[in-house]
Amino acid sequence: MTRRLVLTKFRDLSPDDAFFDSLKESYREFPQWFASKLDEDVYAVIDDRAELSGMLYLKREDGPVVDVHPSLPSRKWLKVGTLKIIGRGTKLGERIIKKILDTAIGGDADAVYVTVFDIHNDLLALFHRYGFRIVGTKTTENGVENVLTRSLDDFKGHIVEDYPFIHTAGRQAWLLAIYPEYHSRLLPDSILNNESREIIRDVSHTNTIHKVYISGLSLTRMSRGDIVVFYRTTDKKGPAYFRSVVTSLCVVEEVRQKRDFVDVEDFLNYTRPRSVFTEPELRDKFTTMQRLSVAKLTYNAALGRRTTRGRLLDDAIVSEQPRWDLRPLSDHQLRQIIEMGNVNARIIID
After folding, report:
1. Does residue 74 share a domain with residue 196?
2. What is the 3-state secondary structure (H, E, C) of 80-126?
3. 3-state class of 247 per DSSP?
4. Judging by beta carbons within 10 Å of its beta carbon (0-12, 13-18, 19+), is residue 62 exposed, middle or buried?
């Protein structure tokens, strides 16, 4: 089953869809509100059968927010106006969080706010994990909701709570290779223009912000907080000079070795939700690989422009040797790759 997060218009959705029943129960004014938004953009989660299973409405609000208590100060706010997800154990909520934060940063917002009822414990926990904090309440005829905010210019020095911002001061950067057959399933926002979106499926390793990279390389040179630039190797349809590209920025959360897992079940519990490999493949790797390293990473940004191996060589940014499987990058090399990749400068905060 494939579920996609697509940008559409309210008019393309039916308010009579059973998906909206719970929203109608929680918000009495929902039918009238929906009718007033017909020409506005909304993100919808739609599967192969055109079944709606998620909705995300984002709205820019500049100035103070006065319909909550206490009022929120005058800022360039991105409001999460409506959010509902039918969970299927695929970590789609994390993909929604990424979309919210990417939209806020791309739209030059100062902060994000959202209102959530107490009964939605899982949703509250999800927002809290990524740096949102309860700062007040909003009272209407529908009841009392929590008001949560996330500033985009106040950082805690924490990899997850500050996500997707990247701290570079005192951190090592690395170029890390990934094969094409795994690349876009693990890093969906980094899919290349010539790849089919059919490979992006509604599974945990695609949706999750937290990725697991498994290798026979020794990854222990990497430390928590280091920056990873993913390098997608050639797909063999042409020379690597033209076909291999840098695509993504990630941050290391932790690195483990085989001996750090109690047994194969411990290894599976850690890797299965975040890895592109199937359970049999994971079991085989744990059983047969003597040198096995696992890096857990946050997926922070897709490069807007994918720079080829040839361009990196011709511009003397990265040399031919040593090999491009895992190699350190200087701060200057990292900055050049980020600049060439059209990455929003806001996410680099040091």
Report:
1. no
2. EEEEEECCCCCCHHHHHHHHHHHHHHHCCCCEEEEEEECCCHHHHHH
3. strand
4. exposed
| Predicted confidence (pLDDT) at residue 224 exceeds the cutoff of 80 | yes
Do 18 and 105 lie in a common domain? yes
To the nearest 10°, the Cα dihedral for 97, 99, 101, 105?
A: 180
CB within 8 A of 183, min separation 6: which ones? 190, 230, 232, 247
Domain that holds residue 28: 3-151
Is the entire prediction scored with pTM above 0.85? yes
N- to C-terminal Cα distance for the chain? Answer: 41
Question: 64-73, 218-227, 258-267, 271-280: lowest mean pLDDT where?
Answer: 271-280
Average pLDDT over the chain reads 88
Tell whether 136 and 14 lie within a shared domain.
yes
Provide the number of structural domains found in the chain: 2
